[in-house]
Amino acid sequence: MRVAELSRRTGVSVASIKYYLREGLLPPGERTSPNQARYGEEHVRRLRLVRALIDVGGLSVAGTRDVLAAVDADEVSLHHVLGTTQDALLGEPAVTDDDATDRAGKLVDDLVARRGWHVVPSNPGRRAAVEILATSERLGTDVLARLLDTYAETLEPLARREVGAVVGRGDREDVVEGAVLGTVLGAGLIAALRTMVHESASAELASGPAVSAEDG
Amino acid sequence: MRVAELSRRTGVSVASIKYYLREGLLPPGERTSPNQARYGEEHVRRLRLVRALIDVGGLSVAGTRDVLAAVDADEVSLHHVLGTTQDALLGEPAVTDDDATDRAGKLVDDLVARRGWHVVPSNPGRRAAVEILATSERLGTDVLARLLDTYAETLEPLARREVGAVVGRGDREDVVEGAVLGTVLGAGLIAALRTMVHESASAELASGPAVSAEDG
Predict the structure, then answer these.
(1) d(CA A216, CA A213)
(2) Average pLDDT over residues B182-207
(3) Cβ–Cβ contact B143 with A under 8 A
(4) Fewer CB within 10 Å: N-end or C-end of chain A?
(5) Which helix (H) or strand (E) holds A37?
(6) Residue A42 phi, psi (nearest 5)
(7) Are B200 and A119 in contact (CB < 8 Å)?
(8) How far is the alpha carbon of B70 from chain A, nearest alpha carbon, in Å?
(9) A31 CA to chain B: closest CA distance, Å?
(10) Complex ipTM, two decimals?
(11) What is the pLDDT of residues A36-81, one digit of tens each?
C-alpha cells in the first residue's frame, strides 16, 4: 500500500509517518520509484505499536527506539526486552542522596527480602520506589510507607499473572510484543481503574459526611 | 529565611524557585526590601509539594497550578480536589471514534455496572481505560481485556484502602494534601512495585526455559 493508505489504515498522519521513518521507528518501505514506496501489514502493526508506546505509554522517541531495537533483536532475551521497556517507561528518577533516601532504600530492600523477589539494585522500579518513599518522608507523610506491604501483597499476584498471560503464547514476536504492550498498556489500565475506584469511593464519602473548610 | 536558604532546605535551585514564583506555583514571600523577600515553613512545604507533583507525578506547570488552586480553595470538596488531581495526572486521552472505541466503552461500562462503581462518564480514568482497551484491540491483543476483571478485583480493595488512609486524618489541609500526594505518589509506587515483580517473575523464567529466537 502507499503511504496515504498506511495513514488511513492507522489514523496516523502522513507527516508523522515520515517523521517516524526519518527517526528509524518505522522501517523503510519497498521503494517503487524515486519518490514512492510500498508498505505492508508489518508497517501497520509496527506503526500501531509505536503509537501505543508514545501516546499511551508516554515514551520518548529515543525510548521508543530502544524498545523497538530490543524487540527486533533476535538474540535478546525476553528478560532484557522487559528491562528496556521498564527503563523507557519509568525513566531515570532524580535520585537525591540524603538520609530520607537511605531510609527509603532500606524500606524497599527489606520489602524485597521479605517477599523473596529477585530484583537487581539498578531495577528502574526499585529506584523509583526509593525516590517516591523518600519524597513522601520529606513531605512529612507516611501513608505510602504504612501501606507498602499492602501494595506489595496486592500487586504481586496481579503482576505475576500479567507475566504469565504473555509468556508461552504464540511465537517469539508475539511474546515479546505482548510483553512490551502489556507493560505499557497495563500500567495505563491500572492507573485508570485506580482512578475510577477513587472517584467511586470518594463519591460515596461525599454523599456522607463532607470534608469542608469547617472541619479544619 | 532568604531564597538561598529556601533553596538549600529543599534542594530546589534558586532559578527554579523564581520560576515557580513567576508561574504562581509558590506564593510570594514577605517583601523586606525592593530586591529581597523572606520565606517561611509554608514555602518549604509548598515547594516540596510542587516538586512531587512535577518530578514524580510528571504533571505540567498548568496541571500543577490547577491542583494547587483546588488544594487552596476552602470551599471545594475533597471529591473535587481528587478529580482535579486525576485530570492533571492522566491528562486528556486522544480518543479515537471507531468500532474498537465503542466496544471498549461497552467493556468498561459493563465492568462499572458489575462492580457497582459510582463513576461519571467524564471520569479521566474511564476515558483512559476505554482508549487503552481500544488500542489493545487495534493491536490485535486481548490480554488486557481478558484480565480486566482480575485487574478490577485486585485494585478495588487497594484503592479503597488508599482513600480510607487519607480521609479523616488531621485537618482539612492534611486530608487534601494527603489525597493529592497519595494519588500522585501512589500511582508511581504501584508502577514501581509492578516493575519489580515483573523483573522477579521474568528472572525466574529466564533461569528456567529461555525465550530465544529459536523458540519462534
Answers:
(1) 6
(2) 87
(3) yes
(4) C
(5) strand A36-38
(6) -65, -25
(7) yes
(8) 12
(9) 26
(10) 0.82
(11) 899 999 999 899 889 888 887 888 899 999 999 988 887 777 778 8
Residues of chain B neighbouring A122 (CB-CB closer than 8 A):
none
CA distance A74 to A134: 39
Residue A25 has phi, psi (to 5 degrees) of: -85, -15
Q: Is A117 within 8 Å of B196 when comparing Cβ atoms?
A: yes
Residues A118, B175: C-beta atoms closer than 8 Å = no
Q: Average pLDDT, stretch B126-155?
A: 90
Could you read off the pLDDT of A108-148 as tens digits, one per residue?
999 999 999 999 888 889 999 998 999 888 888 888 999 99
The 8 Å CB, 24+ separation contacts for A145-154 are A145/A107, A146/B165, A147/B161, A147/B162, A147/B165, A148/A107, A148/A111, A148/B189, A149/A111, A149/A114, A150/B158, A150/B161, A151/B158, A151/B186, A151/B189, A151/B190, A151/B193, A152/A111, A152/A115, A152/B193, A154/B154, A154/B155, A154/B157, A154/B158
